[in-house]
Amino acid sequence: MDFRLKIWLEKDNQPVFGRGLLCLLTLIRQHGSIKRAAEDLGMSYRQAWGNIKKAESRLGLKLLIKHVGGESGGGAQLTNEARQLVLKYENFMHDAEDAVKSVYARHFNE
Amino acid sequence: MDFRLKIWLEKDNQPVFGRGLLCLLTLIRQHGSIKRAAEDLGMSYRQAWGNIKKAESRLGLKLLIKHVGGESGGGAQLTNEARQLVLKYENFMHDAEDAVKSVYARHFNE
DNA sequence: ATGCGTTATGCTCCTTTGAGCATAACGCCC
DNA sequence: GGGCGTTATGCTCAAAGGAGCATAACGCAT
C-alpha cells in the first residue's frame, strides 16, 4: 500500500500550473526550444504549445519569449515571471510531498 | 492564486481508494443503499457500483455486504475492513491537507 | 401471483483529451 | 531564391470515462 499526490496552482478556480508545466518549462530552459522539450517528455509539440498558451491566458502573463526563423530556426526562452513561478512551485511541491510523506508514515506505518 | 490537492491510496501501482470512494462509502453507511448514496452524490448507480467493484478487486477484499430482494428491496452495509479503511483514509487526508495548507502559506503568503 | 425497490450487468451515446497530420509564416544560410 | 528548423494553428482520429437505458434476478408484502 502506498499513496499518490497531485498538487497544482489555480487562479479563479482554473488550473494554471502543475507538474506538467514544471517539466515542460524546465526542459525549455535547458534546450531553448519547445519542440525539443516536448520530444524529451514524449509528448506532442501540439499539446505542449497548447498547454503553455492556455496557462499564459489564464495567468494573464507571458511565460515564454519566442522567436521564429533565424539561425537555428527559432526558439523559446523563459520570461522572468516564468522562472520565478517555476522556482516557487518547485519548492512548494517538494516541501508538500515531504510533509505528506511524513503524515502518511504516521498514519499507515503503524 | 490558490492550490488544489488530490490524494489517493494505491496498491501495486493501481489506485484503490480516494475521495470518491470515501464519499460513496460514507453515504452508503448512512443510507444502507448504494442507489441512494449515488443519487446523493449526483452520480449514476452504474458508476458507483463499478467503482466499488473495481476497488474490491484491486484491494482483494470485500468492502460491502450486499443483499438483494426483501422488505426494502435490498441494501448494502460496510464490512469491518471498509470501515477501517474509511477511517484511516479520512484521517490521513485531513492531516495531509492541513500540512500542505501550512506549506503553501509558508511559500506563497510571503 | 403481482408489484416494488434494490443489486447486477451489458450496451450505446457523448464528452473530453491527446496524438498526429497538414500547412503557413518566418528568418538565417548557402 | 531554395532549404532548413522552429513557432503557430486547424483538423481529424482514436482512446477513456461517465451518463443513461434496458434488462434480469431476487425476496418480502399484499
Assembly category = homodimer
Q: What share of residues are in beta strands of chain A?
A: 15-25%
Count of alpha/pi helices of chain A: 4
Helix content of chain A: 55-70%
Average pLDDT metric of chain A: 95
Shape-level CATH architecture of chain A:
Orthogonal Bundle
Strand order of the largest sheet of chain A: 1-2
Describe this structure in words.
- Two copies of one chain form a homodimer.
- Chain A has 110 residues and is of the alpha+beta class.
- Chain A has a single domain, classed as Arc Repressor Mutant, subunit A.
- The first copy, chain A, has four helices and four strands.
- In chain A, strands 1-2 form a two-stranded antiparallel ribbon.
- In chain A, strand 3 and strand 4 form a beta hairpin.
- In chain A, helix 1 packs across helix 2 and helix 1 crosses helix 4.
- The longest helix of chain A is centred in the C-terminal third of the chain and has 29 residues.
- The two termini of chain A are 13 Å apart.
- At the A-B interface, strand 1 and helix 4 of A face strand 1 and helix 4 of B.
- The first copy, chain A, binds a DNA duplex (30 and 30 nucleotides) through helix 2, helix 3, strand 3 and strand 4.
Explain the layout of strands and helices:
The structure is a homodimer.
Chain A: E1 2-11, E2 14-17, H1 19-31, H2 34-41, H3 45-59, E3 64-68, E4 74-78, H4 80-108
Helix pairs in contact in A: 1-2, 1-4, 2-3
Chain A binds a DNA duplex (30 and 30 nucleotides) through helix 2, helix 3, strand 3 and strand 4.
